[in-house]
Structure formats: structure tokens, C-alpha cells
Amino acid sequence: MTRIVTVAAAQLGPIARKDTRAQVVERMLALMRQAKSHGCDLVVFPELALTTFFPRWYFERQEEIDAFFEREMPGPETQRLFDAARSLELGFYLGYAELANEGGRTRRFNTSILVDKTGRIVGKYRKIHLPGHAEHEPWRRFQHLEKRYFEVGDLGFPAFRASFGAEGIFGMAICNDRRWSETYRILGLQAVEVILIGYNTPVHNPPAPEHDALSHFHNELVMQAGAYQNGTWVVGVAKAGNEEGVEQIGNSIVVAPSGEIVAACTTTGDELAIARCDLDLCASYKNTTFNFARHREPAQYRMIVERKGAIPPD
Ligand code: CDT
After folding, report:
1. Cβ atoms of 171 and 196 closer than 8 Å
2. N or C terminus of the chain: which is more exposed, having fewer CB within 10 Å?
3. Which of 40, 47, 282, 286 is catalytic?
4. Alpha helices (H) in 209-308, listed in sequence order
5. Structural domains of the chain in order of their starting residue, each with its CATH number
6. Tens-binned pLDDT, residue by residue, of the chain (314 aa)
7. What residues flank ligand 1, with Cβ below 6 Å?
């Protein structure tokens, strides 16, 4: 049996601060049309895909910060993406900054949504692992103020049953989440078959410049391991290139449940990497080496953690 979902990792090159949402959406629509012409079912865009990566700057005025946020989804500029999903019969994953009003409180999250081929939102995720810092750190060449501008996501790591060419179980994560094994395992425990991940990763890591030369290696390492150890496809998609003076890795990839990279972008501009993902390949790993029901030993993990006095798992 084969369940094929043809996926496009839709990498975006740099987005300048002066670029409008309409200009960015136009670039995304071009990638969607291109993906359709290659027979794709699903297009995956990066984290915070509609604007420049604004946490690199320290802003004091809240209205300056809020200018980067979406108050509704779809909104006036993003409606065209939903219309294209419907007319092209092509799903998409979109990362954006979400401004929500919940319980009479304004809340800000680094969010992604999964939209099906009819233009309906079938899944939503709010980034949990926020990297960087909350206070202005002038010693850095550029800031990484996600801990200042966003709340920690409050939706957990939900998996969604959805259909993109074939029916499967889909999960989402955002950028720094991909470095954490918990991300993949929580989704893996829900039998996930495809994990979609958008990211913005600078080549230079101010607190640890000794890691800079390893940025591509670490990017591939975490997604390949996460895919293999959970028997799932992983689609990692970058906002790439020199954005407002900050060099960002591209290296967008599609990883098979074997852990092998089966498609990759080769530029740091707008580019598609396309892969025919057979969701039934997941079973070959989920039913053997990583048969969780048979081989995981959660009771033992709890005892080890408790004996060592570490924080016990929930
Ligand atoms: N956007 C985001 O989460 N970026 C972080 C930068 C951390 S520097 C290692 C990332 O994990 O890619």
C-alpha cells in the first residue's frame, strides 16, 4: 500500500523590513503555483513567513512591535493564500506572529497553521521552545528577543488527521522546537507521520560563536534524528539569506522516516524542494525498531529520573 503526499518545502529568501505583506504574499503565491505545476499536495512555508524576522531588533513602542503581528487569519492580505489553496487544491503550512484577544487579554504567539486543499484551517500550533532573551542585550551584533515578544505556546504539540492527496497524521513545530527531542517524541507518541517545521536560523549564534561553522550540521542532525527515532517524515523550511544584515541558513530539507534527506534546497533564495512522501513508509520503523508499545519502557525512565533527583516527567 502507498499513501503519497507530494510536499514542497517552500523556502523564502530574505524579507526586508520595508517589504509589505502584499509583496511577500505575491512571492508565496508564485511558489504555490510552481508547486502545483509539479503536482504537489502541500506547501510548507517558513516561520514568521509574512515579515522580516523582527525579534532581531529591540523595540520599545508596543505599536512598532504589533505592526509585525496578524490580528486575524485569514486577514486582508493573507486571504489570497486561502483562495489559492482552494483554487489550486493545494494545502499549506504558514508561520506568522499571532495577536489574539483571549479572556479579555491581549496575547502574542509565534504560531503556525495547517490549511487543507479547501482553504480550511485544520490545525494550529503555538511555538513552545522560545529561544533567545527577554531583555535588550546591546553587546550582541543583533538581538534575539523572542522571549520578550511572545508567550510560550499553550496548545501543546497536537497531531491532526488531515488529507493532502492521502490521509495521514500531521504535526507542527516551529524553528527552535526542532532542536528538542521532546517535540518529536510527543508527536511520535500520537503516531505522527509528517512533521512540518518552519524556521529562521542565523548562521551566527552570539552566545556561542564556536557553533557557527556547525549550523548546517546541527540543522540536519536534529531533524534526521527526530524523523528516524519516531518513524516520521520531517519537512524543515528556512527563511534564508542575508536579511537586514543577518546571514540566515537556508538548508531546507525533507527527511524520510529512515532519517535520510530526500530533497534539499541549494540556494538561499525563494526555492522549492519537492519530495513524494509515502506515509506508509513510516510503518516500517514504527512497527519494528521504534515500536513504542513493544520496546519503550516509560516506567523505567520515571524511576531513573526520580532516583537521580531530577525533575520527574509529568
Ligand atoms: N527562530 C528561532 O527559533 N531560531 C533559533 C536560533 C537559535 S540560535 C542556535 C533556532 O533554533 O534556530
Report:
1. yes
2. C
3. 47
4. 215-230, 281-286, 292-295, 298-307
5. 4-289 (3.60.110.10)
6. 799 999 999 999 999 999 999 999 999 999 999 999 999 999 999 999 999 999 999 999 999 999 999 999 999 999 999 999 999 999 999 999 999 999 999 999 999 999 999 999 999 999 999 999 999 999 999 999 999 999 999 999 999 999 999 999 999 999 999 999 999 999 999 999 999 999 999 999 999 999 999 999 999 999 999 999 999 999 999 999 999 999 999 999 999 999 999 999 999 999 999 999 999 999 999 999 999 999 999 999 987 666 666 665 55
7. 47, 131, 175-176, 179, 199-201, 205
